[in-house]
Design a protein that fits this description.
Layout (H helix, E strand, L loop, with lengths): L3 H9 L4 H7 L4 H9 L6 H11 L3 H4 L11
């Protein structure tokens, strides 16, 4: 599965893969694999990304088109 939303969210923030990878304490290569769907994203990383982008995990995974998180 290709996670176009990860790329879109990152580009909306005008940051590169290396910057996101540093936030996740991983390498740019690993993060690139997340965006391409070549590597499963750990739950811990999904939580960090959802908080950072202020969207739900379901939105990142393409399970909903609602960006806002349920609080």
């Amino acid at each position: 599965m290709y996670f176009q939303r990860l790329r879109d969210l990152r580009e909306d923030k005008d940051i590169n893969q290396t910057q996101v990878a540093e936030m996740l304490y991983t390498s740019q290569t690993v993060y690139s694999r997340y965006e391409r769907g070549a590597l499963t994203i750990p739950v811990e990383h999904l939580l960090i990304l959802a908080d950072f982008y202020e969207v739900s995990i379901d939105y990142i995974l393409g399970r909903t088109n609602k960006r806002e998180m349920n609080v």
